[in-house]
Amino acid sequence: MGGHHLILGKIDDFITGEVLADTHDERYRQKIARILVTDKGYAKADIHPRNPLIVAAGNRKGHLWVDFTVTVDDRTAMVVKYGPGSLVTRYRPTLAISRLMAPYQIPVVVVTNGESADILDGETGKLTASGFNRIPSRKDLMQQLARVDFSPISLKRAAMEARIVYAFEIDGSCPCDDAACRIA
For residue 127, which of 8, 99, 112, 155 sits 20 to 30 Å off, Cα-Cα? Predict the structure, then answer.
């Protein structure tokens, strides 16, 4: 990763052990990964970093990386999206991402800037809690899944959500940012 990020050297990914470029953003991502494992009880195998997502908006396509998905009981149950700055501005695109990363609505959506975190209900989009300490633990998430309806996302809804992601994450991205790009 290059773009406009200051490269401070190399850093080992906490989840995979992969060697990554050490940037301020990557340091926050590693902090989030550590919180999920050490404070929230997730196994490293539950956490999937750097998930690719290709979205289309009409004839345009774009590629971006979703920071983390968390799988419990063979279902993607939580998506975590990091971005510097305001959390509120990231709600809608992250909710849209949560409707594209699995064939069903991912129930828990976490938006974080590395200093704070907001937890959203994937179905309603409503803010349910704030703070890293309020991210559901593995045990809490497993209990929550018993009440979740994993109905499929319709193709029409997925197409609309992809347009939202494209507008916010691809069209709205800095031209020198290599975390998201136009591919067609």
Answer: 155
